[in-house]
Amino acid sequence: MNPAVSNLVISLAAMQVAKRVPFDDPQVLVYVRIAYVATQAIVLGVYYYVGSQIRKKNDQTVLKYVEPNPMNKDESKLVTTTVRDYDLGEVSKLMRAVYMGLAMMAFMHLYLGYTQPLFIQALMGFKTLYDAKPVAIHLFGKPAEGDLKRPFKAGGMFGAASDPLTDKAAIDEAEKKIGKKDD
């Protein structure tokens, strides 16, 4: 199932369950806070572990791809990196997303007083962990094929337009553009 669709389904189901949770009870609220903090700590711990596994493997295989600019196709950027550096960059993005989520939840819960999002995000933390491609490769041992082939497909709002290009023709064209700029 598409991760965006499954996130939506899990969120809607969690909202229905959260309606029945008595957040007025201070004891329940403490348990929900503990569950949220524990989930985020586990997610961060797994990301740190995956990062250490990437460093330990130290895969220096060269990875070349063209990072397209969805607004202007002429401004595509050639990226040459190693598998190790690419994976560490992806784990870093995942960790930044966790920290941003923590900041948003702190604002929403502590300042605005919302409690339902704590419950929902406690469940969604494990879902995002399961969907993380570096986790699938380095923790679950899945081969880097198909959806897990590097560079990872973005699958975001722009769809295939924002996915990195790995075909030889696109890489050669980007190298020619760089050569022209250097002259």
Structure in words:
It is a single chain. Helix 1 (3-19) runs antiparallel to helix 4, helix 2 runs antiparallel to helix 3 and helix 2 (26-57) packs parallel to helix 4 (116-131). The protein has helices spanning 3-19, 26-57, 83-111, 116-131, 133-138, 168-182, and strands spanning 62-67, 77-82. It is elongated, with a radius of gyration of 20 Å. The longest helix has 32 residues, at 26-57. The chain has a two-stranded antiparallel sheet. The protein has six helices and two strands; from the N terminus they run H-H-E-E-H-H-H-H.
Q: What's the quick description here?
A:
This protein is mainly alpha-helical and about 180 residues long. It has six helices and two strands. It has a two-stranded antiparallel ribbon with strand order 1-2.
